[in-house]
Amino acid sequence: MKNMKSAVLIFSFLFLSFYAEEKLFEVPKGWPQPVYDFSGNPLTKNKIELGRALFYDPVLSANGIVSCASCHSPFSAFTHNDHALSHGIHDSIGTRNSPPLMNLAWQKLFMWDGAVNNLDVQPLAPISHPAEMGSSIKEIVEKLNASPFYRGLFYTAFHDSIVTGEHTLKAISQFLLTLVSANSKYDKFMRGELIFSDQESNGYKLFLTNCAACHTEPLFTSFEFANNGLPVDSFLHDTGRMKVTQNAKDSLKFKIPTLRNIEYTYPYMHDGRFKRLSDVLKHYTSGIVHSSTLSEKLEKPVVLSSNEKVDLIAFLLTLSDSTFVFNKEFQYPKELFFPSK
Amino acid sequence: MGFVSMFRKLCWQENKYSRDSLKDLKSEKMKVVLRFIVCLVFCFVYEFGLFAQTDNSVQVRIVPVFDGKPIELDSVSYAIRAKDSVKFSSLRFYISAVQLFQDSSLVKSEENSFHLVDITNPESMQFLIPVTKEFNTLQFNLGLDSLVNVSGVRGGVLDPTQGMYWTWQSGYINFELTGVSPNCPEPRHAFDFHLGGYQYPFKTIQVIRSRTGQNKTILVSLEIRKFISEIDLQNKNHVMSPGADAVKLCSLLGSCFFIQ
User: Fold this and answer.
1) Model-level pTM?
2) Is omega for the bond preceding B187 within 30 degrees of 0, making it cis?
3) Nearest of B248, B130, B231 to residue B195 by alpha carbon
4) DSSP state of B140
5) Partners of B79 in the β-ladder
6) In whole angstroms, what is the distance from residue A263 CA to residue A100 CA?
7) Which ipTM was obtained for this model?
8) A41: distance to nearest CA of chain B, Å?
9) Do A4 and B45 touch (CB under 8 A)?
10) How far apart are CA A324 and CA A179, in angstroms?
11) CA distance A260 to A219
12) What is d(CA B228, CA B67) in angstroms, rounded to the nearest whole number?
């Protein structure tokens, strides 16, 4: 038993020394520690690359047309902009707005209602949903095992050419974990690299007073669930988190989304009902529906003059991170799918 | 067995594929040496495990039965009560955290203790536990604990390709029983029980604990009649998500195990 223990210790020490060589993920200065357990899925270049291939490959859908990127495109901070509700396989329409993908290593629960508890298992939902990819992880693993291209990539990444569900999902997680957005104008301001305009400064003050309680810095979300006073859509009749917890106290609560890259991620809210940021502000100043589960932070009305709304939006636009959106490492892996000889 | 090829794999294969492999020869050599050591340590641990297994072990056999006889799928119709019968089409469940006790003191905890018992796969219905000391009690979980349910994707019997993981909501299905009964509604007359849930207040995991005999084989039977005859199949034939029903049915299942 004692021998075993020391062997395990040596093993983990050596393993960590491999790992420390490559810096594939860094916690931005001033950010909290991520919640994702990297020790169970240590990042490597090859695994990230495999994950990127899987993310962009429509092989994940039943008819080979829909990929993850169909509803999570890089140019819109990995959401489906201009679509209130995303469409998947056979042009079926879903019931919720696809969320942007960024800074996922810090997120505890996934989906608008928090139904998914770990990044690794998150892709199972869209893969299996009949209106999204209409497939199953089993079917995908069979397809990948039949592909010499993927068997090669899995071998390179995992030293095992037999594709498994575990390896497939871990590779996708690896790519998703690298999607860190921390280089917006706001971040540069915080790092002292530039200064805000008067309008942006005033917007920041207004943000701190009116929004920051839920959209907490530096990730611009508290990762909690809240009812933000939206009138219930009579067609979708989505009760949000209550579906998962089966607790009436969670009725109409949805995940508080990050505000980072909000310029690119329109339309807004869980059902994409607001096209413009001005619509969103209008909701918070004059559209709140009071109910028993309404967030207590919204009990007191938010008061903003029209000039203040303009300033607040100017601040929100400082959260756009173009280096994130255009990062070459995150784009369609053309060189992998179509190598030039 | 296979160590040479394993060593090769670990030492060389990555270099062949890695893009930056030739950047720094020195560190590459270091890498190879380090990996060699890792291999040695790994082999040691592996061998150690093998020896322990062949030495002294007890076999645990898990057999789902109906009236004490092993269940057959599809073909056999089982009478539950007058004018009510069932045929089963699938029966699978997770067993985890298998432990042996001598009275109240722990003798042995099975390592990596996860089993997906599947009636279509006889191998899944038995396993060996290496043990050298005396014991008189067996304990295991029906289902998987919350830690397994929240800690991301796992391989082997826990791989989501096994079809025992929910997709729209995180969590494993602890117990699956499906089939048909004439009393279930049209069109398929089917019943589907996918029972699971790890979060309070809908936790479904059951701890099963019982005295064992002195034999080298412990027989664990799961008496399905006791389970299915308690269910009003006409009105309750689909439980496929965590909730109060799943909790009730799993606690019923917990009382259906018999250990010899």
Assistant:
1) 0.84
2) yes
3) B248
4) E
5) B85
6) 11
7) 0.86
8) 10
9) yes
10) 8
11) 7
12) 12
Which string of DSSP letters, residue by residue, matches B218-252?
A: EEEEEEHHHHHTTS-TTT--EE-SSSHHHHHHHHH
Mutate which of A127, A166, A177, A329 to test chain B, going by most B C-beta atoms within 10 A?
Answer: A166
Answer whether residue B21 shows pLDDT above 50. Answer: no
Residues 6+ apart with CB under 8 A from A15: A42, B38
B139-164 mean pLDDT:
97
Contact (CB<8Å) A18/B34: yes
Q: B94-133, pLDDT tens digit by residue?
A: 999 999 999 999 999 999 999 999 999 999 999 999 999 9
Q: Which of A11, A118, A164 sits opposite B161 (nearest CB)?
A: A164
Contact between B159 and A169 under an 8 Å Cβ cutoff? The reply is: no
Residue B249, C-beta contacts closer than 8 angstroms, at least 6 positions apart: B193, B195, B227, B231, B239
B151: closest chain A residue by CA: A118
pLDDT digits (tens, 9 = 90+) for A196-251: 999 999 999 999 999 999 999 999 999 999 999 999 988 889 999 999 999 999 99
CB contacts of B163 in chain A (<8 Å) are: 136, 138
Q: Which of B13, B159, B171 sits opposite A165 (nearest CB)?
A: B159
CB A122 within 8 A of CB A110: yes
Distance from CA of A13 to the nearest CA of B (A): 10
Token readout for A84 is: 């209130």
Check CB contact under 8 Å for A124 and B169. no
Distance CA B236, CA B232 (A): 6
Q: Mention every residue, 6+ apart, whose C-beta is less than 8 A from residue A138.
A: A165, B161, B163
Partners of B199 on chain A (C-beta within 8 Å) are: 245
For the record, the structure tokens of A166 come out as 């575990």
Rg (Cα) of chain A, in Å, rounded? Answer: 21
Distance CA A89, CA A62 (A): 8
Neighboring chain A residues of B245 at a CB cutoff of 8 Å: none
Distance from CA of A196 to the nearest CA of B (A): 41
- In whole angstroms, give the CA distance from residue B170 to residue B246: 15
Q: What is the pLDDT of residues B50-71, one digit of tens each?
A: 444 445 899 999 999 999 999 9
Q: Does the beta-carbon distance from B150 to A173 stay under 8 Å?
A: no
In whole angstroms, what is the distance from residue A137 CA to residue B24 CA?
39
Q: b/e map of A38-55 (b: 16 or more CB within 10 Å)?
A: eeebbbbbbbbbbbbbbb
Give a three-class secondary structure readout of A24-47: CCCCCCCCCCCCCCHHHCCCCHHH
Optimal mutation site among A12, A121, A133, A245, interface B, most CBs of chain B within 10 A: A121
Q: Could you report the per-residue pLDDT of B195-206, keeping only the tens digit for each?
A: 999 999 999 999
CA distance A166 to chain B (A): 5
